[in-house]
Amino acid sequence: MQRRRSFVQSRLGTKEDFSSREEPSEAAAAAPAPAANDEPEYVGELERLAQLRDQGIITNEDFEAKKKQLLGI
User: If you placed Cys at 43, which of 4, 35, 39, 58 could pair as Cys (CB 3.0 to 4.6 Å)?
Assistant: First the structure.
């Protein structure tokens, strides 16, 4: 840890006591909640599969099986 302080001090030309810093609380460290307009990954995949089903490339059974797999049902 001392090496890191020395490196930072020499690069920035400052002396800072890193040991006095408070650790971020767990609530602040948690990942932020996704925005309301962000959709889960699987939505795009389901839309693509629905298009393939509508075009007759895959069967409805194939679509339903993959949908259950994506949704974890």
Answer: 39
- Tokens 């040991």 belong to residue: 19
Instruction: Assess if residue 61 is contained within a domain.
Output: yes
Is 29 within a domain?
no
Instruction: Count other C-beta atoms under 10 Å from residue 53's C-beta.
Output: 18
Q: Roughly what angle, to the nearest 10 degrees, separates helices 41-54 and 60-71?
A: 180
pLDDT digits (tens, 9 = 90+) for 50-61: 999 999 999 999
User: Who contacts 21 (Cβ-Cβ below 8 Å, separation ≥6)?
Assistant: none
- How many whole angstroms separate alpha carbon 61 and alpha carbon 30? 40
pTM as predicted? 0.47
